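As described in the Methods, two query proteins were run sequentially through the folding procedure within a single session, without resetting any intermediate state between them. The first query and its resulting structure tokens are shown here.
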Amino acid sequence: MSSEITTINLGGVNCYLLRSETGFVLVDTGVQTRRARLNEAIESAGCKPGDLKLILLTHGDVDHVGNCAYLRSKYGAPCAIHAKDAPMVEDGNMGANRKAKPDKVSLIFRLLGLFAGRLVAKNPLEKFRPDILVDERFDLGSYGLKAKVVHLPGHSKGSIGVLTSDGDLICGDMFYNLPGFRSIDDLSDYQASLNKLRGLKIERVYPGHGRPFSAAAILARAR
């Protein structure tokens, strides 16, 4: 069975709920201030306590992990992240394993970063220790998904994507679909990740910010 993807837009930050024969997997969790909307969307999709089998984080930034500890407690689902981004959620340090100065960050992203910093100061991240550290050997088949984890460093050292057998790529912040959004910590890592994606069968991209788009646009967006 192919996985069914539900996009949950939490004010410009996307989470993705994947449904399979055995339950649900949630990719990313948004920010704490949008928790009510997230709860509503998950419940509307028919996901009840016991149905959520895994919370998989594309990277450790607070706008993607803000509700993880809460959802783990509510649904009893384990939280998974790449080992290189684990210090972000364990210590609440978004700069962990990143350069002091990113290689490329757009002005609008810098401004939004300042706003997000103020938001986090008012609503501190509920830090947590991940239950699972994932890499490209991680088996999503045991959660009922015909999909695999793809390591995509660039935005962060531990950034990952989820690629389904249908060619749908949930890519976190590897790509954006909002004007002016760009944040690359390490350009050499990013280029290597881009080259990896060029060698994979991808039909549609589901970004962390903005609407899904055709994979044919990947090369143009990456320039």
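Immediately afterward, the second query was submitted; its sequence and tokens are:
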Amino acid sequence: MSKGKVLICDRVHECLIEGLKGLGYEVDYQPEVILDEVAKQINDLTGIVINSRTVLIKELLDHADKLRFIARLGSGMEIVDVPFATSKGIVCISAPEGNARSVAEQALAAMLSWMNNLVVADRYLRSGQWERERFRGRTCAETQLGIIGYGHTGRALAESASSLGIRVLAYDKYHNDFSDGFAISSGLPELLATSHVVSLHLPLTEETIGYLNADFFAQIKRGTMLMNTSRGAMMHLDDTLKALDEKHIDFLYCDVLPHEGKSFLEAVNDERFNRFIKHPRVAVSPHVAGWTRESFVKLSEVLLSKIHEAT
């Protein structure tokens, strides 16, 4: 007998589809489904597997009387009204373990690229100029990394960076266990004032919206590289541009932007946003840090295990 219907709203590895069937669920795999269609079907669902395209607000969940679990591919539960869902007895599951290593490795690659001036040297030579001394790099042994947010991804980055001889400081307002030996616990002012590279690994909450603002930049060591692989809404665009223009920030890598997907295509006509993504000391990527071949499999494996345990 079927345990109910599960709608999968994004592309997943077949192990999740077959695993859910093995647990007794009827699986409806619609990786291109739009939110309007989800709204029409949600009353009949026992479970739903989502990614960032599917935002489950209170008004939508209010009619989901059969729904027993929401499973998020990756982290970032800001797309779900978790308190309301929980009040209805809906179990909310995420899988930050599934792509933490992939995001950490992307951040490490960006950091090593900056340390060796790979992006700016490439741009300089393409403009027809040659100047070796300008692009003298730095070694891991003389570099300090500051990690803000010590969850799955922050810890994975600390592990990888420390193995290369990089000194790692970490700050987390809600986490006190740094006994893994990969990072040294630090206060935020010390981390910002002394680190050559600062990497952001925080969830998007009311507290972290606009986190990268004038107050933040006023505390940061001049000439720092900044990395944001968390969420684009954490960046105050005007304050960030000012920090870049004044060379307070030497370089910024963003895998996440204030505008993504269809919103990005519309925003490229905005003067400020266009200036940001084309800034000579900015490198951007289209939210792909956690989007590796390995994470594609692991995200599905982690979610299947958690769904099994929770239901």
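The longest strand covers residues 249-254. We note this only descriptively and draw no conclusion about the first query from it.
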